[in-house]
Here is the input.
Amino acid sequence: MTNKVDVVLGLQWGDEGKGKIVDVLAGRYGVVARFQGGPNAGHSLQFEGQNFVVRSIPSGIFREGSVNIIGNGVVLDPISFLDECDALQKRTGIDPRERIVISRKAHIILPTHRLLDAAREAAAGKGKIGSTLRGIGPCYSDKTGRNGLRVGDTELPSFKEKFQKLSALHTDLLAHLGFDCDPHYQDAEFFEAIGRLKEFKFIDCEFFVDGVLKSQPVLAEGAQGSMLDVDYGTYPFVTSSNTTAGGVCTGLGVAPGRIGKVYGIFKAYCTRVGSGPFPTELFDKTGEDLRRIGHEFGAVTGRPRRCGWIDLVALRYAVTLSGVTDLIMMKADCLDTFDTIRACTSYLIDGQETSDYPYDISDGRITPVYTDFPGWKTSLADIRSEDALPKAFMGYVKFVEDYLGARISIISLGPDREATIERK
Ligand code: IMO
Ligand code: MG
Here is the structure.
């Protein structure tokens, strides 16, 4: 058996450009799978002059003949998923039913999961996570708390009863949190969406992927970023799933030995949305410039993203956690105009310098130590071959590769499919 599951992961706090890269790589993979997360993701793709943002739909959808798997590690919101499918079909003519299959073991986001997300965030006050409010945390809580509803349950005669039981539990919780809402406000819409969800093919993901691997490789598309991983990220300011490579095994039902390449995506700088520590965050004009030049506003929520210099300490941690074999650098073109490019190469904590990622990175505790590089001060945007890249830029690339101990095999210099350099 030589075919493997190759993986694309974000190495920072999300929004690294996973959608674009999956779209570029999808030409080589007939099968793309999402293994965790849900509609909190917003993956942007751009080709033939058009922009698309997908949330629950895997980014392989635009390729003819592709099979796109929603794996069991995903949490699926039937209402927003069908809205997304309808919008995509209207714009492109693509029938998502022909290209998407859904794991029976994927958990379902109820309208009340979204209400609970809002209620918990409201109750948390200053300690709020800055959640996308898509019901992700409450749905995964019900999964591990063994209360959840799964896609396969919709085929059972007892589905309505199971729904009512969970809905009643949520109603109690919402009342306990003193959240003013009608827990049944979307019940009718929910059941309509459940009815339509059955137009899709449901699969047993573990068997399905095993079958696919007999004849071709699979590309697993991560959502969120490594630093939002529920175990290894900046807990509790994280999402509720394993965004690192281990999540692929549990999220699709594949054995560790069947994981192939691990593509790790990072921006040449760094962003974060929502709350939580971000040691290299910039609060000055440079931060504003990065936001403006990089169009750093959330694809899902429209929130302005926090911006800062690249954090190589956190990045090396992420590379190690997932065994990244190939690095992909995004958006270096956004640094074209800067005189100096900075990279955080260690942290100063209570007078001690370290380049190992520490347990406690609460806000204000860490002073980043930077290594500076001269800016290349020329536009990279239209460069399409490695040989044409400026020396100063390649010096920065080499430094990052050496620090991270992995090769940068793809350099992306703009949102379009075409603005991609694959290195020899
Ligand atoms: P993509 O796939 C960036 C962040 C939220 C919040 C925290 C928890 O586009 O990279 P949640 O809704 O999961 O309860 O939010 O995680 N977050 C993301 N940040 N990109 C994402 O997805 C994100 N998905 C969640 O802002 O801080
Ligand atoms: Mg996003």
Observations:
- The first strand starts at residue 5 and ends at 10.
- The mean pLDDT is 96.
- Residues 44 and 205 are 26 Å apart (CA to CA).
- Residues 10, 13-15, 40-43, 129-132, 134, 136-137, 223-225, 228, 237, 239, 273-274 surround 6-O-phosphoryl inosine monophosphate (ligand 1) (CB under 6 Å).
